[in-house]
């Protein structure tokens, strides 16, 4: 991350750290258990969780590996992660301050690197992927979970230009709620980026994530004006964006919508020596 983007992330997520510690989406989301199943971690592995937030991903991997470092740039988040490790008795889970674009670890340090629901904040995805590859041992495993933008599969019948525009409007929607949002690409962008960087994709899944609107905006301390704009977009915004987000009211009249989560498990590949 750049210094400017780091500062924006800290300003948004520092005050919200305690909320993320108790967030159902982050603490108990369906992708959390599933990514552990797909990774199939080993008891001998040394693991790193990048942009750990309140530490939920590091904590769920901790019982399955030798050690795991929960890293983040936000001190308040690292404190929450440390509290979580203590509460669960995870003596093999530690914390470290680290930027996703400049990981402060030696080459080939880890058997596993994971990153869940954070990469859309990173200003340079290529640099992040390069850093992941650098700190992974040969044959090491990288697991990514993140929100993704729409593609042809999610918007059947839409033209290429319509999809490109919806990628733009979706990211603008996210950035309106959270100014530290960077860019959530469509799934194939991640696949192409990882293959080009020397990773082999060994698992690729996508799942829907239902979000309740009110907690979603409360976590980011959105102003009434921003909340009104976000509701307007969900109610009467661009048609393809609404088709992608699927806004709806539950039986109590509470607003909900759907995001898409991509789950990728990849292995670092190296030329035969």
TrEMBL record:
Pfam families: Methyltransf_11. It comes from the Bacteria. CDD domains: AdoMet_MTases. InterPro entries: Diverse_substrate_MTase, Methyltransf_11, SAM-dependent_MTases_sf. Keywords: Methyltransferase, Transferase. One of its GO terms (molecular function) is S-adenosylmethionine-dependent methyltransferase activity. Residues 48-143 form the Methyltransferase type domain. GO terms for biological process: methylation. Belongs to the methyltransferase superfamily. This is Methyltransferase domain-containing protein.
């Amino acid at each position: 991350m750049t210094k400017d983007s780091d500062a924006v992330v800290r300003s948004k997520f520092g005050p919200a750290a305690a909320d993320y510690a108790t967030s159902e989406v982050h603490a108990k989301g369906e992708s959390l258990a599933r990514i552990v199943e797909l990774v199939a971690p080993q008891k001998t592995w040394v693991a790193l969780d990048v942009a750990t937030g309140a530490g939920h991903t590091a904590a769920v991997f901790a019982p399955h590996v030798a050690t795991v470092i929960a890293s983040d740039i936000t001190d308040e988040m690292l404190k929450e992660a440390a509290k979580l490790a203590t509460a669960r008795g995870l003596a093999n889970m530690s914390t470290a301050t680290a930027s996703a674009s400049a990981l402060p670890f030696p080459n080939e340090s880890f058997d596993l690197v994971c990153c869940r629901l954070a990469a859309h904040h990173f200003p340079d995805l290529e640099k992040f992927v390069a850093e992941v590859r650098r700190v992974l041992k040969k044959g090491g495993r990288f697991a990514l979970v993140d929100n993704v933008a729409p593609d042809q599969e999610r918007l059947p019948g839409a033209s290429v230009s319509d999809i490109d525009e919806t990628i733009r409007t979706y990211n603008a929607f996210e950035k309106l709620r959270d100014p530290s949002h960077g860019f959530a690409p469509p799934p194939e962008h991640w696949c192409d980026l990882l293959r080009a960087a020397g990773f082999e994709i060994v698992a690729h899944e996508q799942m829907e994530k239902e979000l309740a609107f009110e907690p979603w905006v409360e976590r980011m301390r959105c102003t009434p004006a921003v909340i009104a704009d976000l509701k307007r977009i969900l109610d009467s915004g661009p048609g393809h964006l609404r088709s992608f987000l699927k806004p709806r009211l539950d039986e109590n009249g509470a607003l909900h919508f759907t995001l898409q989560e991509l789950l990728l498990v990849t292995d670092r590949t190296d030329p035969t020596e």
